[in-house]
Design a protein that fits this description.
The chain is α+β, with helices and mostly antiparallel strands and 102 residues long. The chain contains two helices and four strands, in the order H-E-E-E-E-H. Strands 1-2-3-4 form a four-stranded antiparallel sheet, sandwiched between helices. Strand 1 and strand 2 form a beta hairpin. The longest helix has 34 residues.
Amino acid sequence: MKHLSDAKKEEISVLTRKLIGKGVSVEGIVRSSLNDKYGLYIWYGCSDGRVVNVRPKKMTAEFDADSWAVREWKRIWAKRLRHEEKTKVKLDKEEKTVKSTK
């Protein structure tokens, strides 16, 4: 099972959305393995900081409480926020420069 079919992806998406509820979005994949040799799993990072553990073979989804994936997602999310802040500051500076030259 190297790749998931479109139908299976849709089932996983519905399962994940049902678990996380309204107002929360899936922001990225923390880690995944679709190799039968090592086990099938997908860890999704959510916008509220939680991590959803999906098992495609069993079609189960649950929140991870305190695992490697949660710590990794917090690290990734913090790095992403820092990058967005730096980009915003850079764009603000460029905007001020453009306004001052007019």
